[in-house]
Write a structure and sequence with these properties.
The complex is a heterodimer of chains A (about 425) and B (about 80).
Chain A (H helix, E strand, L loop, with lengths): L21 H12 L11 E4 L2 E4 L2 E5 L12 H14 L7 H4 L3 H13 L4 E5 L2 H12 L5 E5 L4 H10 L2 E5 L4 H10 L8 E6 L11 H11 L2 E5 L14 H4 L8 E5 L9 E5 L12 H4 L6 H16 L2 H19 L11 E6 L2 H13 L2 E2 L1 E3 L9 E6 L6 H16 L1 H14 L2
Parallel strand pairs in A: 3-12, 5-6, 5-7, 7-8, 8-9
Antiparallel strand pairs in A: 1-2, 2-3, 4-10, 9-10, 11-14, 13-14
Helix pairs in contact in A: 2-11, 4-11, 5-6, 7-8, 12-14
Chain B lengths: L3 H12 L23 H15 L5 H6 L3 H13 L1
The chains are: A alpha/beta (about 425), B mainly alpha (about 80).
């Protein structure tokens, strides 16, 4: 009610503008009946890359994509603090309007050098990176080919580009080959193939080498998003493309700062020096504030760690193998072989939500992932492993999953009770 | 070149496993709204149709298609190109 004589100022004639979300409201209310809202929860404190706190309860963080655990790295924190002292807290505008800081340029140069490519552009977030690059690269005569399990930012990038977009079967180079073969192109039109290195929901890895061969044969440009694999895979941390020996075949290589690079931002590096021209056409680059100095300098420090500390990659590989084999021994349905993303498939959304709440109550935070954000309409308990996890942390996570399995009958009874109690 | 009826029949055949409530499949049936096929299943169905007719149905075309009849027309148009 308002203070204007009792009239409800929020009332509008006809159906509310929010009425279209009624099915979503109903679905969300089911999740809320089961406990904490998994998509709107707050930690009372985050104390480190693997520890948070809710009330008096310490929580093992196993769903933060903090793959190398560098958000609390002494070098990254010192670099961010120093950047604030020297350059202040924000850039207050875009690089087109306000200019770049020398740190933006240095990070672009060093990322390009690390990826052995002549060009690299830094963006404000990983999401914006793919949005910007795809709108800049694809023109009206071009055709974008995307994997069926593409991340939302890739799908949104195709929509913003307004270009003909064709999906091919997930991780299937032969299916791409077939679709490239039958596509008719306008004069001057090109194919841009967009894939990811490590898929963020199931944790499965793309055969980038096979995709590169198909692209080469068809004269298509290959764009690889290594958001979840840069820093984690490859001898030098250059991702799955390096691991499979095809880094030089990738025309456009994108990544994010918000995972291994321990910050917020994104980047796209290219084999083509002309990529630099796109700074003047990519609207999501031109019309948004540039990354803050602290974010840029933290990412710069994390990049140095990726280059100089290969033991981080060994740690995360070992911990991922330990967790994956432990869950497999318990006969959980796992979506892919061992990688830093381990997805446990559950029978349905309500059960997955109930189990997610139980794990949190027991001190383990994982991600609840549900359709339409998941492949094959799956409901998942998604775990992301960190190099900062210890063997003991992984044993503790496994113990909770074991207890989850042992208590499943009681948990389902409790789920039914909560659902019925709120009806 | 398949006829309009052949395209419609093929869509009905491929839709069957996704039509879990076994509702009548008419040209006016909304694929998601009436037949209650979820968005993931729609994309699976589209890929099966693409393979059968050896065409690619771009995503922007799929997002404009709401009914079975519109899907028939979209496929016919792509086959004619």
């Amino acid at each position: 009610m308002s203070g204007t004589g009792g009239a409800d100022v929020s009332a509008k004639p006809g159906l509310s503008i929010f009425s279209k979300y009624e099915p979503l409201r109903e679905r969300a209310s089911v999740l809320n009946k089961l406990g904490i809202d998994p998509f709107n929860m707050t930690f009372d404190d985050i104390m480190g890359p693997t520890r948070g706190r809710i009330g008096n309860r310490e929580i093992i963080l196993a769903g933060t994509n903090n793959y190398l655990g560098l958000t609390y790295d002494a070098g990254a924190r010192a670099a961010a603090k120093d950047a604030i002292d020297r350059h202040g807290t924000g850039t207050t505008g875009s690089r087109i309007a306000n200019g770049s800081y020398v740190e933006h340029a240095r990070l672009e140069r060093d990322l390009a050098e690390h990826l052995r490519k002549p060009s690299c552009i830094v963006f404000t977030t990983g999401y914006v990176t793919n949005l910007a690059a795809m709108t800049g690269l694809a023109g009206p005569d071009d055709v974008i080919f995307i994997d069926a399990d593409a991340h939302a930012c890739i799908i949104d990038g195709t929509r913003l580009a307004g270009t003909t977009t064709v999906r091919f079967r997930h991780n299937d180079p032969k299916d791409l080959d077939k679709r490239l073969g039958r596509q008719k192109f306008a004069d001057g039109g090109h194919a841009l193939v967009v894939i990811e290195g490590l898929y963020s929901m199931f944790g499965d890895i793309a055969p980038i080498d096979e995709f590169a061969e198909v692209c080469e044969r068809h004269g298509a440009y290959l764009y690889v998003d290594e958001a979840h694999s840069y820093g984690v895979f490859g001898e030098g941390g250059r991702g799955i493309a390096e691991d499979q020996g095809v880094l030089d075949k990738i025309d456009f290589y994108s990544g994010t700062f918000s995972k291994s690079l321990a910050s917020v931002g994104g980047f796209c590096a290219s084999n083509h020096p002309e990529f630099e021209l796109l700074r003047k056409v990519m609207r999501p680059y031109m019309f948004t504030a540039s990354a803050a100095p602290a974010n840029i300098c933290a990412a710069q420090a994390a990049l140095e760690a990726i280059k100089s500390r290969p033991e981080l990659r060994r740690n995360i590989t070992d911990r991922a193998a330990q967790l994956h084999s432990g869950l497999a021994d318990m006969e959980f349905d796992l979506c892919a072989p061992a990688s830093p993303v381990i997805a446990v498939r559950r029978p349905n959304e309500a059960q997955a939500a109930m189990e997610w709440n139980w794990l949190l109550q027991e001190g383990v935070y994982v991600n609840l992932a549900v359709p339409p954000g998941t492949p094959q309409s799956s409901s998942l308990l998604r775990i992301s492993v960190s190099a900062a996890h210890t063997e003991e942390d992984v044993r503790a996570i496994l113990a909770k999953f074991r207890a989850l399995k042992d208590n499943s009958a009681e948990l389902m009874n409790e789920m039914m009770r909560r659902m019925q109690a709120s009806e | 070149m398949p006829t309009d009826q052949q395209i419609y029949d093929k869509i009905c055949e491929l839709l069957k496993p996704y039509n879990v409530k076994n509702k009548p499949i008419l040209r006016t049936s909304g694929i998601m709204s009436d037949l209650e096929v979820d968005s993931t299943a729609v994309f699976d169905l589209i890929m099966e149709l693409e393979d059968f007719f050896d065409i690619s149905i771009p995503m922007e075309v799929i997002s404009d298609v709401k009914t079975v009849g519109e899907l028939v027309l979209a496929i016919q148009e792509l086959l004619n190109q």
